[in-house]
């Protein structure tokens, strides 16, 4: 016995990877995610490898994981993959406090973000 198997939410030609609790603000992460949206996988990996943003390495790892999921779990052709979606959601926010003048306190917010990358196999047009 056990729970019944959950239906797959993605199409048969798609695979995804999710990274949770990245220590960066969602706004900054979305700048890097927008850089790879809609591009072929090889181009997106090259763009992330040469990006100067600190979080680009983690986005690259997530994209590589989505590619591996597509290849190993869903038998998709790696050369025909395109980044269909790359979206960012807000995670938790750590709140810290810093002493300020005259006995007051200043709040420091340390946000976290979640990243989801969906890759899709497309047919080559001649």
TrEMBL record:
SUPFAM superfamilies: Ribosomal protein L22. It comes from the Bacteria. Pfam families: Ribosomal_L22 (PF00237). GO terms for cellular component: cytosolic large ribosomal subunit. Part of the 50S ribosomal subunit. The globular domain of the protein is located near the polypeptide exit tunnel on the outside of the subunit, while an extended beta-hairpin is found that lines the wall of the exit tunnel in the center of the 70S ribosome. This protein binds specifically to 23S rRNA; its binding is stimulated by other ribosomal proteins, e.g., L4, L17, and L20. It is important during the early stages of 50S assembly. It makes multiple contacts with different domains of the 23S rRNA in the assembled 50S subunit and ribosome. This is Large ribosomal subunit protein uL22. The gene is rplV.
């Amino acid at each position: 016995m056990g729970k019944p198997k959950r239906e797959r939410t993605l199409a048969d030609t798609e695979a995804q990877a999710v990274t949770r609790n990245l220590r960066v603000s969602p706004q900054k992460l979305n700048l890097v995610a927008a850089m790879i949206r809609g591009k072929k996988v090889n181009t997106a990996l090259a763009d992330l490898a040469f990006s100067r943003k600190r979080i680009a390495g983690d986005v690259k790892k997530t994209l590589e994981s989505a590619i591996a999921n597509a290849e190993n779990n869903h038998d998709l052709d790696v050369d025909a993959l395109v980044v269909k979606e790359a979206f960012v959601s807000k995670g938790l926010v750590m709140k810290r406090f810093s002493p300020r003048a005259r006995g007051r306190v200043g709040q420091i917010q340390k946000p976290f973000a979640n990243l989801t990358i969906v890759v899709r196999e497309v047919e080559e047009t001649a």
